[in-house]
């Protein structure tokens, strides 16, 4: 397309401000205007009017039904670029730029046969949409370059945490087994100590009960003898005479030498006197022992 022609200039010029279109808005009739110009024109009418007339052909249109013309905006941008570079030498028609549907094209018939194509491509200009796409691609690549190492770091971090978790699980299981074993040993020690104390108590019980039984038998015998002596004394008191004098002497002699023999005193304290062990102290010592074993077991 020859942007230097009057027709091309007219297509990209706003009929209202007579300047290059800025944000071109098209009406249903096909005429296009700057967004700012057509908006000001539409608002200049009566507020009661629901429709306005095209400034060029007077066709009626609805102000809210304007459409942004992307294709025309591209052509305006290309015209600006060509106008700014109009002082540069004109390129060969063989490699003429052609903008159509936001794509960059040029005559490719001799692209594979002419080294001039390389130079032409270097001077080739991209459309705004292509520039946006290129910029997006660059930013995406930049973001990818930033996140890829972090992704690898996250994977390594996950592996490290899983390894640490496995290590802690092993340590916890080992400690659990130590605790169970330790208390089993304590229970075994306590059971043995209990049996030993019960055996001592049983021996004391047998000895004490044997002594008490013997003491009771001794007291019973003395009581029986004393009962007979008292009975004899009472008899001779009531039957005292010359004929019973020898019996009186005998009973008096027996009474005189009589002495109550007390049994052997049983000690108040048992040999197997049991004292409840200091469980808190034992647990503290066990804890200290466990800590020492854990320290040296590392």
Q: In angstroms, what separates the terminal alpha carbons?
A: 85 Å
- Can you write the helix and strand succession as a string? HEEHEEEHEEHHHH
What is the radius of gyration? Answer: 63 Å
Tell me, briefly, the overall form.
Answer: rod-shaped
Number of domains: 2
Q: Average pLDDT across residues? A: 77
Helix content: 55-70%
Give short descriptive properties of this protein:
mainly alpha; Herpes Virus-1; three-stranded antiparallel β-sheet; rod-shaped
Overview of this protein structure:
This protein has about 300 residues and is mainly alpha-helical. The chain has two domains: about 5-135, 2-Layer Sandwich (Herpes Virus-1); about 150-295. It is built from seven helices and seven strands. The strands form three sheets. The chain has a three-stranded antiparallel sheet. A hairpin with a 6-residue loop joins strand 3 (about 50-55) and strand 4. It is rod-shaped. The relative contact order is 0.05. Mean pLDDT is about 75; it is low at about 85-125.
């Amino acid at each position: 397309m020859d942007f230097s022609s009057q027709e091309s200039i007219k297509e990209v010029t706003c009929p209202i401000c007579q300047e290059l279109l800025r944000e071109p808005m098209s009406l249903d009739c096909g005429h296009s205007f700057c967004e700012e110009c057509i908006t000001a024109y539409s608002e200049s009418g009566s507020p009661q009017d629901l429709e306005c007339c095209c400034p060029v052909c007077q066709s009626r249109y609805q102000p809210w039904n304007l459409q942004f013309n992307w294709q025309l905006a591209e052509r305006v941008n290309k015209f600006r670029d060509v106008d700014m570079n109009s002082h540069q030498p004109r390129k060969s028609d063989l490699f003429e730029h052609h903008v159509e549907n936001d794509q960059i094209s040029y005559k490719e018939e001799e692209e594979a046969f002419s080294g001039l194509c390389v130079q032409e491509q270097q001077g080739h200009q991209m459309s705004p949409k292509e520039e946006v796409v290129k910029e997006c691609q660059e930013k995406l690549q930049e973001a990818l370059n930033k996140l890829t190492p972090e992704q690898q770091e996250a994977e390594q971090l996950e592996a490290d945490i899983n390894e640490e978790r496995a290590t802690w699980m092993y340590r916890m299981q080992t400690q659990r087994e130590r605790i169970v074993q330790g208390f089993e040993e304590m229970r075994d020690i306590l059971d043995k100590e209990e049996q030993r104390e019960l055996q001592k108590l049983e021996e004391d019980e047998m000895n004490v009960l044997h002594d008490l039984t013997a003491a009771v038998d001794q007291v019973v015998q003395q009581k029986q003898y004393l009962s007979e002596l008292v009975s004899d004394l009472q008899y001779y008191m009531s039957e005292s005479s010359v004929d019973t004098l020898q019996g009186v002497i005998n009973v008096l002699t027996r009474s005189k030498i009589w002495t109550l023999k007390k049994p052997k005193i049983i000690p108040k304290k048992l040999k197997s006197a049991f004292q409840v062990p200091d469980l808190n102290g034992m647990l503290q010592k066990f804890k200290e022992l466990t800590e020492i074993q854990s320290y040296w077991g590392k």
